[in-house]
Amino acid sequence: MLRLLSKIMLASYVIVSSASVQAQEWENNLESKFGKTSYYKPQRQSASSKINRGNRAINKRLRQKRVKRGAKMFIRIFKTENVLELWMKRGQRYTLVKTYDICKWSGKLGPKQRTGDKQAPEGFYKISQGQMNPNSKYHLSFNLGYPNRYDRAFKRTGSYLMVHGDCKSIGCYAMTDPAIEEIYGLMQSAFQNGQASIPVHAFPFRMTAANIDKHGNSRWTDFWWNLKQGYDVFEATLTPPESQACGKNYTFTPPPLNAPGISNPSWSCMMTGVASNVGQDEVADNVHTANAAGKF
Fold first, then answer.
1. What's the CA gap between 111 and 121, in Å, rounded?
2. Cis status, amide bond into 147, omega within 30 of 0
3. Which residues make Cβ contacts (< 8 Å) with residue 282, sequence separation at least 6?
4. How far apart are CA 35 and CA 29, in angstroms?
5. With contact defined as beta carbons under 8 Å apart, do 129 and 105 qualify?
6. All residues at 6 or more sequence positions from 126 whose CB lies less than 8 Å from its CB, including other chains
């Protein structure tokens, strides 16, 4: 009987060892093809489990930065630097909580113009709760709201332009899954605490005069000088400005000071009534993007 038990135990050990070796070979195989961090994703995770995991991961950083969960949020994206900045309000100003590497973005420097150009948008966007998609095919996502009123003034087309996980991009800004879990959870907390919309400013690079001059031959320099105005307001005040579309320009409240390039025509817009429907227009944008959010 003892000999029989010994044989059974030995056979079991051989089977388990063989299975472990095969599993390790399988993992090594996948790592060589897809990279160590992305080769395997647990299936059928609930949205709440993803968000809760992100909340736990970011809690220490919130304590270090002395900001409270649910505080107002602001997001900046920089293509050339390949980063997404997450800012939160502390006192009267915003503080940088964390900088994330963007896993992938597609296209070149410059705005998105039409469906199928595979460009990631540049400009000033607002995210409402209806633009959040916890059931995204790409882990978690939120819709940028492209095209906004400014984009439509140039007859730009496209839809479902997102910030999402899964590290894949065809016109979107793709993050790693752990990054989007943290970002998404904090956005949800801000909405639950009363923030109506979260501004997202997407830039081609840090908007300094020197950086724009480096691209002096680009067709987009006038556009970038206009973006720089909104960038400069935040750099000076550490509070995101209110952005509006006035004809074919962005305008800002408060207005930029001593900004080169395009002037800030907010007053003339208000006098002519061009900007008077901006609020209604943004509501329409949010309804459209909320309806589209579940498709991506």
1. 5
2. yes
3. 126, 148, 149, 197
4. 10
5. no
6. 145, 148, 197, 198, 199, 200, 282, 285, 286
- Of the chain, the end-to-end C-alpha distance in Å amounts to 62
Q: Is 114 strand, coil or helix?
A: coil
C-alpha triplet 280, 281, 283: angle, nearest 5°: 65
CA distance 45 to 50: 7
Helix (H, G, I), strand (E, B) or coil at 136: coil
- Which residue type does 87 have? W
Q: How far apart are CA 163 and CA 173, in angstroms?
A: 5
> Catalytic site residue 164?
yes
Give pLDDT tens digits for 168-217.
888 899 999 999 999 999 999 999 999 999 999 999 999 999 999 999 99
Beta bridge partners of 163: 142, 173
Q: Is 167 a catalytic residue?
A: no
- Please enumerate in sequence order all residues whose Cβ is within 8 A of that of 195, keeping only pairs 6 or more positions apart, or say none: 72, 73
Please, what's the largest Cα pairwise distance for the chain? 99
- The pair of three-digit structure tokens given for residue 42, joined into one six-digit string: 């647990």
Catalytic residue among 103, 172, 246, 269: 172
Stated as kind and residue range, the H or E segment containing 202 is: strand 198-203
Q: Is the peptide bond prior to 254 cis by the omega test (within 30 degrees of 0)? A: yes
Which class does domain 47-293 fall in?
mainly beta
Which of 36-40, 41-45, 255-259 has the weakest average pLDDT?
Answer: 36-40
Which one from 139, 164, 167, 201 is the annotated catalytic residue?
Answer: 164
For 5, the token pair is 């038990």
DSSP state of 107: S
Of 100, 165, 154, which is closest to residue 122 (Cα–Cα)? Answer: 154
